[in-house]
Write a structure and sequence with these properties.
The complex is a heterodimer of chains A (about 600) and B (about 170). By secondary structure, chain A is mainly alpha-helical. Chain A has helices at about 5-25, 25-40, 50-70, 75-80, 80-105, 110-120, 125-135, 140-170, 180-210, 210-230, 235-250, 255-280, 280-285, 290-310, 320-330, 335-345, 355-380, 405-420, 430-435, 450-455, 470-485, 500-505, 515-530, 535-555, 565-590; strands at about 400-405, 425, 440-445, 465, 490-495, 510-515. Classes of the chains: A mainly alpha (about 600), B alpha/beta (about 170).
C-alpha cells in the first residue's frame, strides 16, 4: 500500500476520532484506540502490516520518555530512587503474584502463569502518562508515584524478557550472558558520555546558525540514534531515551527541545495507540465473549485491588489511592513483547489461543483505562472531595519570566535575583547563555516569539513576563502572542524608543519603560549640577520633566496615526507647554523674593 | 453629597498593624478619594497638580498616618511643603481651602500612658498636636476633633474593628 495513502488514513483517524473522544470526555487515548480497531484487520481492514507500523510507532513512546527525562534532572531522579526501586519492586511482585494466581486458576502451567503474571503486572507508560498529562496529574504527588512505578517497570521488563527463554526451556539459549550485559553497560556509558559532553556543544553550534529545522532535525536524530543503539544491545529504547533526556534536563536547550519534539511525540504516540487498537482481535472476542471479557474484568479488578492495597505503602495519600490504582491498572505494551517471546519459547501446541487471548485482554484493559477513570471520578468526586494542599500541583517553574537577557534583561535579572526573586530567562543568543550559566541562572536558549517555548518556560503559571528584547519587531510579536494565549499574564516591557513605546502601549501593555530614558534623565541632572544647580533641585526638575514627558507621550498615543506634520505640531505644542511650566515656576519663586536657580546662558 | 479626600502616608503599608485596617475600612467608600501617597509617589516625586486638584474637589480633607518621631512621616511633611504652596493654599490672599474641614487620623505605637509626664515620651500627646492643627488652620481649613489612636502595637482584632467603625462614622458613612 502506498505510504501516502497509509499516512492519509492515520491522519484522518487522528483528525476525526480524537477530537470526538475528547469532546465526549473520553480522552484522546480512547479516540486513537477506537480508530485503530476501526481501520485494523478486524473491521475495515484498511491497513495491513500492523506489526511494522507498531514498531515504527514505538518511537512515540521513546520520544515521550525522552521528554519525561527532560523534565527530571539528575538530582530529582536521585531523589526518587527509593520510590522507583523500593516501590517499583513491591508493585511488580505484588501485582505479578496476584495475576499469576489468576492465570493458575485459569488453567495455565506454573511457568506460564509466572511469566504471564509478571507481564500483566506491567502497566502502559504511554496510556498512563498521556492520561496524567491530560488530567494535569503529572506534577502532583500521586502522578510522581505512578511515574516512579512505570519507570521501574521499564527497567524490570528487560530481565523479564531475557528470562523467558530460560523459563520456557524450548528454543532458548541464544542469550549471550556476560557479553550481552557488557554490551548493555557500554551502551549506557556511551549515552551518558554523548549526552553529557557532546550534545550540548553541538546544540550550541546548531543554535548559533539560527536554522531552526536543523535544530529540530538534530533533536530527532539524537533520540533516534539512542533508540537504535539501545535496540542493538537489546535494551529498552525508552529507557535509553529517558536517560538521555535526564542528562539534558539541566541544559539551556531543554525548553527548545521540548517544544520542537512535542508535535512529533504527539503524532507518533497517537500512531502507537492506533497500532494497539489494531491488535485487538475482535474475532477472538466474538468467538469467546464470556472468556475474554470475564478474564479482562477479573484481571482489572484484581490489579486495581492489589494496587489499592499497596498504595499506602507507596506513600500515596488516602484520598488518592483509588486514583493511583485506576491510573496504572491496565496492562502494558511490554506485555505484547513478552507474549511474543513466550510464544516462541514455550513451544505451545498449534491452535493454542492462550497467548493471543492474553494479548487481547491486555489491549482491552488499556482501552478500559479512560472508562475506569471516568467511573472513579463519578464515584469519588460526587462527595465534593477537594484535593488537600499536599496534593496541590507542585509549581516548579519560576513566577517571573525574562525574555531577552542582553544589557537590559541582565540588570533586571540581577536585581530580582538579589531581591530573592527567581526568574526563568529566555535568550536566543547561545553565546550569551554560555556566558551566564556559571552564575547559576536558569537560562534557556530559544526565541521568545514562539508561544510553545513560552509555554514550556511556564508562561501559563507565571505571574509576570518581562519583555526585555531589544529588537522592537520581535518584542511586539512576543507581546501580541502572549496577550492572545496568556491574557492573564502581566507584562512589563522595555521599549527601544518612543515609537516602540507607543506600539507596546497600544498592544495593551500597562508598564513600558524606554531603555534610554531614565539614564538620560540622570545624565541631565548631572549636567545641571555641573552648571551649578543644587542636586535636590536638579532632581525635582528631572521629576517634573519626566512627568510632563510621559504625559505628552501618553496623550500622543491617541494621535499616533495622524499625518506626520500634525503629529509633530502636537509634539511641539507639548514641548512648549513644559517650557512654559518651568517659566511659571521660576517666576512664582522670584515674585516671592526667592532666587530660584536658573541657567543663564549669558553668564 | 460631601466629598472626602484621604491623604494616607505609610511607607510600609504591609507592616502596618492599625493603619492598614483603618485605611481599608474607608478607601472604597463612595465619595472617598483615597490617596496612599507613599504608593503613588515612591520616589517622592509628588504630582502637585494632581494633589491640588484632589483637594479642590473635597469638602473633607483627612490626613492619616502613624506618628514618626512625634510628627508626620517625611512623606506627608514633603506633601505639605510641595502641595500647600504659597499663593495657592496660603499667602497673597489665597483661600482655595477655606472652609474645607480637616480631620487628623493618627496612631501611636505606645499606649496613652507613654505620653504622661513620667512616661517614656515625657510630654502629653497634646504637645505634639499644634503643628498639625496650625498647618490646617494656616490654610484656612476648619479643624475637626482629631481621631488619635494609642497602643496600635498591642491592639487586638476587635479593637481594630471598633476603631475602623468609628473612622467610617467620622467620614459620614453608616
Amino acid at each position: 500500500m502506498p505510504a501516502l495513502q497509509q499516512a492519509f488514513i492515520y491522519f484522518a483517524v487522528a483528525v476525526v476520532l480524537v477530537p470526538l473522544g475528547s469532546l465526549l470526555g473520553l480522552g484522546s487515548v480512547l479516540g486513537y484506540l477506537i480508530g485503530g480497531v476501526l481501520i485494523g484487520p478486524a473491521v475495515l481492514g484498511l491497513v495491513k502490516g500492523g506489526e511494522s507500523i507498531a514498531h515504527f510507532a514505538e518511537l512515540g513512546v521513546v520520544l515521550m520518555l525522552f521528554m519525561i527525562g527532560l523534565e527530571l534532572d539528575l538530582r530529582r531522579l536521585w531523589g526518587m530512587r527509593r520510590q522507583v526501586f523500593g516501590g517499583g519492586t513491591l508493585q511488580f511482585v505484588a501485582c505479578g503474584a496476584a495475576a499469576a494466581l489468576l492465570l493458575l486458576a485459569f488453567g495455565l502451567t506454573l511457568q506460564m502463569a509466572v511469566v504471564g503474571g509478571l507481564a500483566l503486572a506491567l502497566s502502559s507508560t504511554a496510556i498512563a502518562v498521556q492520561t496524567m498529562n491530560e488530567q494535569h496529574l503529572d506534577k502532583t504527588p500521586v502522578g510522581r508515584t505512578a511515574f516512579s512505578i512505570l519507570l521501574f517497570q521499564d527497567i524490570a521488563a528487560i530481565p523479564l524478557i531475557a528470562l523467558i527463554p530460560i523459563l520456557g526451556g524450548a528454543g532458548g539459549g541464544h542469550s549471550e550472558g556476560g557479553l550481552g550485559a557488557l554490551k548493555g553497560l557500554g551502551a549506557i556509558v556511551g549515552i551518558i558520555a554523548v549526552g553529557r559532553y557532546l550534545t550540548r556543544p553541538i546544540l550550541r553550534f546548531i543554535a548559533k546558525t539560527g536554522l531552526r529545522e536543523v535544530f529540530t532535525a538534530f533533536s530527532l536524530l539524537l533520540v533516534l540514534g539512542i533508540a537504535e543503539l539501545m535496540e542493538m544491545v537489546e535494551l529498552s529504547m525508552g529507557l535509553g531515551a529517558f536517560l538521555a533526556g535526564v542528562l539534558l534536563a539541566s541544559s539551556e536547550f531543554r525548553h527548545a527541545l521540548e517544544s520542537d519534539l512535542q508535535p512529533f511525540k504527539g503524532l507518533l504516540l497517537g500512531l502507537f495507540f492506533i497500532s494497539v487498537g489494531m491488535t485487538i482481535d475482535l474475532g477472538l472476542i466474538a468467538d469467546e465473549p464470556v472468556k475474554v471479557i470475564g478474564l479482562t474484568l477479573a484481571f482489572l479488578a484484581l490489579k486495581l485491588g492489589t494496587l489499592r492495597l499497596i498504595a499506602g505503602r507507596l506513600g500515596v495519600s488516602t484520598s488518592q489511592r483509588w486514583l493511583f490504582a485506576a491510573l496504572i491498572a491496565q496492562g502494558g505494551e511490554f506485555a505484547f513483547v513478552v507474549f511474543k517471546a513466550a510464544a516462541e519459547a514455550f513451544a505451545l501446541p498449534p491452535g493454542d489461543t492462550t497467548l493471543s487471548l492474553l494479548t487481547v485482554v491486555v489491549a482491552l484493559s488499556m482501552a478500559m483505562t479512560p472508562f475506569i477513570l471516568i467511573l472513579h471520578n463519578r464515584l469519588f468526586e460526587r462527595h465534593g472531595k477537594k484535593a488537600s494542599p499536599e496534593e496541590a500541583v507542585e509549581d516548579e517553574g519560576a513566577s517571573v519570566i525574562i525574555a531577552g537577557f542582553g544589557r537590559v534583561g541582565q540588570i533586571i535579572g540581577r536585581f530580582l535575583f538579589a531581591s530573592g526573586v527567581k526568574a526563568t530567562v529566555l535568550d536566543r543568543d547561545p553565546d550569551q547563555i554560555k556566558l551566564l550559566e556559571p552564575f547559576g541562572y536558569r537560562v534557556f536558549y530559544g526565541d521568545a516569539t514562539r508561544i510553545d517555548l513560552l509555554e514550556a518556560a511556564g508562561a501559563a503559571r507565571a505571574r509576570l513576563l518581562i519583555v526585555a528584547i531589544d529588537d522592537p519587531e520581535s518584542s511586539e510579536m512576543v507581546v501580541e502572542r502572549v496577550r492572545e494565549h496568556f491574557p492573564n499574564l502581566e507584562i512589563i516591557a522595555r521599549a527601544r524608543n518612543v515609537g516602540h513605546y507607543a506600539a507596546l502601549r497600544r498592544l495593551g501593555v500597562k508598564t513600558v519603560e524606554r531603555e534610554t530614558f531614565e539614564g538620560s534623565l540622570v545624565l541631565g541632572r548631572k549636567a545641571l549640577e555641573a552648571l551649578g544647580c543644587p542636586p535636590f533641585e536638579a532632581r525635582e526638575s528631572a521629576d517634573a520633566f519626566r512627568r510632563s514627558n510621559v504625559r505628552t507621550v501618553e496623550d500622543l498615543l491617541t494621535h499616533w496615526d495622524d499625518p506626520d506634520d500634525e503629529f509633530v505640531a502636537l509634539a511641539n505644542q507639548a514641548r512648549r507647554a513644559l517650557e512654559e511650566q518651568f517659566e511659571i515656576d521660576r517666576k512664582s519663586l522670584e515674585k516671592r523674593g526667592i532666587k530660584g536657580w536658573h541657567f543663564d546662558p549669558e553668564e | 453629597m460631601s466629598h472626602t479626600v484621604v491623604i494616607y502616608a505609610h511607607p510600609y503599608p504591609d507592616r502596618s498593624r492599625a493603619n492598614r485596617v483603618l485605611f481599608d475600612a474607608v478607601k472604597s467608600l463612595p465619595n472617598v478619594d483615597a490617596r496612599p501617597i507613599c504608593d503613588l509617589y515612591p520616589d517622592f516625586a509628588i504630582d502637585v497638580e494632581a494633589e491640588q486638584a484632589a483637594l479642590l474637589r473635597a469638602d473633607l480633607i483627612v490626613w492619616q498616618h502613624p506618628i514618626y518621631w512625634y510628627t508626620v512621616p517625611a512623606m506627608l511633611k514633603l506633601w505639605w511643603e510641595k502641595v500647600l504652596t504659597h499663593g495657592w493654599a496660603y499667602g497673597d490672599g489665597a483661600r482655595v481651602l477655606s472652609g474645607k474641614r480637616c480631620l487628623w487620623v493618627t496612631t501611636t505605637g505606645g499606649d496613652a500612658s507613654a505620653y504622661d509626664e513620667g512616661g517614656m515620651h515625657a510630654h502629653p500627646f497634646s504637645v505634639y498636636e499644634p503643628v498639625v492643627r496650625q498647618t490646617a488652620r494656616f490654610c484656612h481649613m476648619h479643624w475637626l476633633e482629631p481621631l488619635i489612636i494609642h497602643g496600635a502595637h498591642r491592639m487586638n482584632d476587635e479593637q481594630r474593628a471598633a476603631y475602623a467603625t468609628l473612622y467610617r462614622e467620622r467620614l459620614g458613612a453608616r
